[in-house]
Amino acid sequence: YRGGEDTTTALEALPLDGIRDVVYKLAREPDSCPGPQCPEAAALMHTDAALNLVGRGRVAEAHSQLQTARWLLGLDVRFDEPSSGPQESVQARRVFRHTWLLAVGKLLMSHGDPSKALSYFENCRDFFPVGSLLAAGSAEELMGSIDGFVRVPGNRGNLFGLAPPPLWFEQNRRRAKQQALRAAEKHLRKAIELEPGLAEAHLRLGRVLQRRGRAKQARAELSWVVENSTHRPLPALAQLFLGELEEGRGQLDEAIIRFRLALLAEPESQAARLALSQALHRSGEMPASVEAARAVLVRKEAGEGWLAYHLAFPRRAKAVMERLRGEVR
Fold it and tell me: How far is the CA of 277 from the CAs of 176, 256, 320, in angstroms?
């Protein structure tokens, strides 16, 4: 196993039924394999093929490859936890399989499939409780924040052309988004219960509460991040979200202060600069608003904070997946 395009192209040509017997043998009898990590290496080959296919929009085929990888790692319901061989080997297999679950779930999120990712996070919750809860909360937040991720029963896309969707459709969509945000809050609160000092969970919980219209509770969570976290870019994002809360209740002076504090914490944040420009415009400070907007146009860097909030999980997952590849090469 070397990983990369050379392995995925060959695997795509193989019919799933043609390799199922081999897959079952490797999953049932890992100690009889040619190498000590043969099932893991084979699973990563199918994982590479799946990620390649997802990137090309061939989602159904990708999930078939991921299912094969699950069988190889003994994650299908047909197989029990690894129990044969030395205790160190058994534990190493368990760590590998649960790390794989968490990483693949995060990568599926990055490819726009947070609902599918949730099943992967659920499968590794006993092994990585805090990490899986944080990831699941983020996936639910994503589904509750963007209309494109809300799955309304019976909806197969935009059936209404350019006409406004009917009332029942909008009601179902709003209900689905609120359901996702409630689930996100539940996961994030549980993560904080297990690890009270986890600043990212407080930040995301504050954002979820903000989206749910619970401003007082959102303010408390975001203020906790400002007061207790020095891990960039979390304090800057918390100030940005607090500024949005103040702006939402018409407190423009307070919002401007928050946006300026966000820029102090992360000077290259274009999201904070744009928010500042808008708040200044609404408060009638036109020259300052124009100057803030102009600064956005001339800066080459967008800042890491806003991007990290949305892309941190796939970035981490890619690094974890590369580490898993290194273990079996």
Answer: 33, 9, 38
